[in-house]
Amino acid sequence: MRVVNAVVRWILMSPLHDLLSRFVVLLVITGRRSGRVFAIPVRYAEDGDVLTVVSRRGRTWWRNLEGGAALTVVLRGRAHPAYGSATTGPAAVRAALTELGQPVVRSLDDGVAISMVVGPADPQAAPTSAWWRWFRAVTAGELAGFAVPAVVAALVAGSESPLLQALALITAGAVEGLVLGFVQACALRSVLSWVPTLAWAGATSCGAATAWAAGVVPVVVGDQVSGVLAVALGVVGLCAMGVLQWRVLAVRLPGSAWWIAATAGAWAVALGVFAAVATPLWQEGQPVWLIALIGLLGGAAMAATVAALTGLAFVRLVARSEREHQARAHAA
Prior knowledge:
By secondary structure, the chain is of the alpha+beta class. It is 57% helix and 15% strand. It has 8 helices and 7 strands; from the N terminus they run αββββββαβαααααα. The longest helix has 44 residues. The mean pLDDT is 87.
């Protein structure tokens, strides 16, 4: 449970908080006697600036709010000063459970209702360079994600079934895209908080799987791929991720279709860098560990390249979003 709570706390305090923050809030409370700081994730109901939560009496953290006390509430990724109070009255517990709409405790006698008045969010620290934030996240995310297909490719290299090889690589590519999508969402949401984490990660995963599927068609059909089909597969592979990501962006940012061309161009250059680094090193009969290591080396060069180039598109995306926001505010 401690590990789970630690992960939940990290998510709620990160740009990816939207995975949980619609129904979980983080309460940061200082112990009256010990002076220790406790960070407790709990489900909540919201009514204006008032939050309501319910706890079990067997837990002790709520006792620090008996009679009223100040605390900090991390709500939707932002820290807010708050003032809360706890009560064990059955009527108050029943009302709080009604607001939450779920049975948090077995009986009213086992429940504690906590009500908090939340103030304006604390000012955020000035963010680091948008390009640098994106470059670090995408380089690390793509390298970590690419490790999966690199290892899988080494493991299935000796398989006599081209179809098995293709399916394994497509699946591994989907995992690669999922990892990349989550780290990209983290960088995106640090500036553009309206980008939904799950939708972005899912789009990136599907785009990566589609790109890998286009890339392994020649493996399955062999020499039957014509020149026209090869070009079409190349276009699909390069554009798939950008198209699906653009569909997520277009919901709130019309006119962002250029993201498709920007990401496709970045991946084209990055794949060229990968080939230039890895292809001369691969030889027939190499052990699996060496094949995987060479793949990871090429993947590192590819990750840094695509991160640097898509970072330029990310900076433009942020600037475009800010102009749209200012235009809407002026119109209002």
